[in-house]
Amino acid sequence: MIAEKYTKIIAAELNVASGFIQNTINLLESGATIPFIARYRKEMTGSMDEVVIAQVRDRLAQLKDLDVRRAAILRSLTDQEKLTPELETAIANVATMAELEDIYLPYKPKRRTRAGIAREKGLEPLADMVLLQRYDDIIKRAEAFIDESKGVLTAEEAIGGARDIIAEKVNEDVYARKRIRNLFQKESQVAAKVAKGKESDGVKFEMYFDFHEPLHKVPSHRLLAMFRGENEDFLRLSFEVDELQAHEILERIFVKGSNASSTLVKEAIADSCKRLLFPSIETEMRQWAKEKADKEAIRVFAENVRQLLLAPPLGQKNVLAIDPGFRTGCKIVCLDRQGKLVHNETIYPHPPQNEVKEAIHKIKSLVNAYKIEAVAIGNGTAGRETERLIRAIPFDREVIALVVNESGASVYSASAAARKEFPDYDVTVRGSVSIGRRLMDPLAELVKIDPKAIGVGQYQHDVDQNALMDSLRDTVESCVNKVGVEVNTASEELLTYVSGLGQALARNMVAWRNENGPFKSRKELTKVARFGDKAFEQAAGFLRIRDAKNPLDKSSVHPESYPVVERMAEKLNCTIEDLIREKDLRAKINLDEFTSDKIGMPTLLDIMQELAKPGRDPRQQFEMFEFDKNIHTMHDLHKGMRIPGIITNITNFGVFVDMGVHQDGLVHISQLADRFVKDPNDVVKLNQKVMVEVLEIDVERKRIQLTMKGLNTNPEKGSLSY
Question: 493, 618, 649, 689: least surrounded by Cβ within 10 Å?
């Protein structure tokens, strides 16, 4: 019954047939992963994508949490002997956590309050009398409640106690709280002021020293900046509404006349707003606004991480990778086509040593000795100088040189995973390996690094860290399974993100591979310790075995669908290899003949697409990029200059572009295109190559303002026009 209730609610909210929602819930509850459901259970879900399936999962968790809290409140009310049929019905029908807490508020155990003290003095009947608003002689009636033994010495004290009780009733009224909450959400202003005496120390928050903006308009990055300023004790933040408007709303609810009792009710409303209701709702608004800002910042960060992980790979090449440096030298490693470290050493071509000839000779000899096809150069300190050196070397073979974003390489090099893989090498060698490998395959290498250390997004350290990690886990898992994993070369870290595996199974797979040699078929996966039927179901379709005898083991066709492909080949009197190789054979297949209770047209269409390009990498083709050879530092820039750059970060307020001057420039959202842009992701993507024009340069503050207007004429994301 409860599951059916969840299904109806989610189906209505997402506008999806309840049958598909129920199937999705059943799959999630059985332990199926989102990538598996989206890829291999399309018939059951109506071909929902991963985003919608994640919404089903998250909403289901919210509804379950609501029911857990609902049950706890019902138990509390039962223990207090205050649960009535009407109250039970109201609690059963509540739709949000806020409404549920509003209902429970009057019954919630609380510390001793002014209203509680007044009740102890026997003043609640007077408060109820005032709320009826039938009497004008309220002072005379209050005299009946004077009782020295209870501490009520005057009529004025009795009236004050009644006012406190009414103020609390106003605060705890479900409808009143709903109306004021709605007012705050729609009309409140976020106000920030500088903390006393922090004007000079908090200069980085100067724009918020006297700041007001409607809550519903303030963008997430500004809100998070203000919260950070408050947390660092430089700002004081408040959420303000028009008090007169709030009083009028509450008076329409509680004021029923125009006598002395009504006046007292108005006073109680004003007191409640100042002392109880406003602080309570403002606390809610802080949490609500923070959660909303967190959600948007996490979305932006996750999208940046997704684009980084799905960046085009160079592929299997012999790579010479360099982690540049001046005084400490340039750390060089040579990697074979599988990314295995085969050589490392250090050269000193830059000041103070200036061993240029020796460095050139060493690099040329390494390129020849290890048949190097590409040179990867980290973009940190001495990056442009090293790039210039490499491009000037007359190699004896064709070699491409590329600058690689090294953000996070130092984090990986000091990690337990790096120490485990390279126990005999120091952090500098590990960092160079990371630079080289992320050129060959960004996804395989970046999964080893905490996504927060990659250097993209906005305010990722200020948001809810649990929500951030959940989102990043979804993002990384989605990317890994979208691309697929070659089981015989994948690292333990990469295998961890494959649908249905996790760290323990990934470790067992690597151990089995080390002991027994490469996997020869997907079926062999079941020989791994703890690799049961469920894990095989969830993972097998995403694992590739390049040298497998069965060509389907190299594809994303799930083993459960192998019999269908075999019947197709049998029907055409050919082999599966023939089906893959010959387009004309595939054209003869009538898919309607192969539908069944378990396999429908969506799966059959996926199979046909995969047979056409088995194991196809969904990532785009790798593109070469070079910075302007004449631009190396900020001092080389001037206003109006047009130069190539590469997008390194996308935020809600604009994008950052690396032009090779050791300081990224900002293209504000208003300067992204000739048309209005609401979301930068609608125009550009991470690692996109673009042309920019310099608007302003502030060398002292290390700020560069750029524009892309009129320079990238094709508005489609990812396209170029220079």
Answer: 618
In the numeric block, the tokens 């130069």 are attached to: 643
Q: Is cis: bond before 352, omega within 30 of 0? A: yes
Inform me whether the pLDDT recorded for 536 exceeds 90.
yes
| Length in residues, the chain | 722
Give ∠ CA 234-240-244 in degrees, rounded to 5.
150
Q: What is the pLDDT of residues 351-380, one digit of tens each?
A: 999 999 999 999 999 999 999 999 999 998
Q: What is the mean pLDDT of residues 207-213?
A: 95
Percentage above 70 pLDDT, the chain:
98
* pLDDT 10s digits, 509-520: 999 999 999 999
Question: What is the phi/psi pair of residue 655, to 5°?
Answer: -130, 155
pLDDT at 714 over 80: no
Reported in sequence order, the residue ranges of 551-670 that DSSP labels E, i.e. its strands, are 642-651, 654-658, 665-668
Report the C-alpha gap between 487 and 713 in whole angstroms.
Answer: 42
Q: Angle at CA 538, nearest 5°, toward 535 and 540?
A: 85
> Which run of H or of E encompasses 237?
strand 235-240
3-class SS at 172? helix
Question: Cα separations (Å) of 110 from 105, 114, 123, 165, 243?
Answer: 9, 12, 19, 14, 27
CATH fold for domain 114-300:
Tex N-terminal region-like (1.10.3500)
Strands 189-194 and 235-240, sheet pairing: antiparallel
For residue 719, pLDDT over 50 is answered with no
**Strand order through the sheet with 210-214:** 210-214, 189-194, 235-240
**232 — pLDDT class (breaks 50, 70, 90):** very high
**Domains of the chain by residue range:** 2-107, 114-300, 319-440, 494-612, 634-707
Check the CA dihedral 309-311-314-319 and report its sign.
negative
Same CATH topology for 2-107 and 319-440: the answer is: no
* Higher per-residue confidence, 289 vs 687: 289
What are phi and psi for residue 589, nearest 5 degrees? Answer: -75, 130
Whether residue 301 contacts residue 462, with contact meaning beta carbons closer than 8 Å, is answered with: no
CA angle at 60 for the pair 57 and 61, rounded to the nearest 5°: 90
Q: Specify the amino acid at residue 120.
A: E
Q: What is the mean pLDDT of residues 602-612?
A: 95
Give dist(CA 185, CA 30) in Å, integer: 39
Task: Tell me the per-residue pLDDT of 443-455, one tens digit each, with 9 for 90 and over.
Answer: 999 998 887 777 6
User: How big is the CA angle at 542 (ends 554 and 35), to the nearest 5 degrees?
Assistant: 150
Q: What is the mean pLDDT of residues 638-648?
A: 92
| pTM exceeds cut of 0.85 | yes
Question: Which top CATH class is 634-707?
Answer: mainly beta
Structure tokens of 449? 């690094």
- DSSP summary character for residue 488: T
In CATH, which of 1.20.1260.10, 3.30.420.140, 3.40.50.300, 2.160.10.10 is domain 319-440? 3.30.420.140
Instruction: Produce one character per residue of 242-278: b if its CB has 16 or more CB atoms within 10 Å, e if not.
Output: eeeebbebbeeebbeeeebbbbbbeebbbbbbeebbb
State the average pLDDT for the chain: 92
pLDDT tens-digit series, residues 546-555: 999 999 999 9
What whole-number distance in Å separates Cα of residue 173 and Cα of residue 175?
6
Alpha carbon distances (Å) from 242 to 189, 210, 249? 9, 18, 11
Please compute the mean of the pLDDT values over residues 456-464 and round it to a whole number.
79
DSSP state of 273: I
Pick the CATH number of 2-107 from 3.40.50.2000, 3.10.20.70, 1.10.357.10, 1.10.10.650: 1.10.10.650
Q: Looking at domain 494-612, which of 1.10.150.310, 3.40.190.10, 1.10.8.60, 3.30.1490.20 is its CATH number?
A: 1.10.150.310
DSSP for 341-377 reads: EEEEEEE--STTT--HHHHHHHHHHHHHHTT--EEEE
